[in-house]
Amino acid sequence: MAGPGSAAVSGAGTPVAGPTGRDLFAEGLLEFLRPAVQQLDSHVHAVRESQVELREQIDNLATELCRINEDQKVALDLDPYVKKLLNARRRVVLVNNILQNAQERLRRLNHSVAKETARRRAMLDSGIYPPGSPSK
Fold first, then answer.
1. Helical (H) or strand (E) element with 94
2. How many other CB atoms are there within 10 angstroms of residue 20's CB atom?
3. Residue-level pLDDT, tens digit, the chain, 136 residues
4. Burial readout 47-57 (b: 16 or more C-beta within 10 A, e: otherwise)
5. Do the domain assignments include residue 15?
6. Number of domains in the chain
7. Which parts pass through the membrane (predicted)?
8. What is the distance between the alpha carbons of residues 75 and 94, in angstroms, rounded to a whole number?
C-alpha cells in the first residue's frame, strides 16, 4: 500500500497514475476556498457599485448647493459645505480605487489558481508527473 504523498504501485511494480496526497490536499483546499473568494469578489463588486452611486450623488448635491448659493438673495456661505462634500467625494474615489486594485489582484490570483489546477489535472490525467514529484 502506498503512503500519503507517494504513488501507488501495480502488481508488476510499475507506478499507477494517481494523485498524490499533496495534490489531493491542494485541490481540496482550492475547492474549499473557491466559494469564499467568489463571495468576496461579489461583495467587492457590490461595494464598488454603491460607491459609484454615492460619488454621483455627492456630485449632484455639490452642484445643487452651488446653484442654490448663486440663486440666493441672502448671502449664505455654503462654500465650506461644498468643500466638505468634495473632500468626501475624493475619499470615496480613493477607496474605490483601492477596492478596484484589490479586486483585480483577487481576479488574477483566482485565474492563476484555476490555471494551475487545470495544469495539474492535465498532468495527472496524462500520467506525467512534474519534476521532483514523489510520484516518479
1. helix 79-126
2. 19
3. 444 444 444 444 544 455 677 778 878 888 888 888 888 888 888 988 998 898 899 889 888 888 887 787 666 777 788 888 889 889 988 998 998 898 888 888 888 888 888 888 888 788 766 555 555 4
4. ebeebeeebee
5. no
6. 2
7. none
8. 33
Q: Do residues 28 and 71 both lie within one domain?
A: yes
Distances (CA, A) of 94 to 11, 51, 75, 76, 103: 64, 10, 33, 30, 14
Q: What are the Cα distances from residue 85, in Å, to 53, 61, 69, 77, 109?
A: 14, 8, 15, 14, 36
Residue-number span of the structural domain to which 91 is assigned: 76-126
Co-location of 80 and 70 in the same domain:
no
Q: List CB contacts of 96: < 8 A, sequence separation 6 or more.
A: 48, 51, 52, 55
Grid coordinates given for 77: 456661505
Query: What is the spatial distance between Cα 17 and Cα 8, in angstroms, rounded to a whole number?
Result: 8
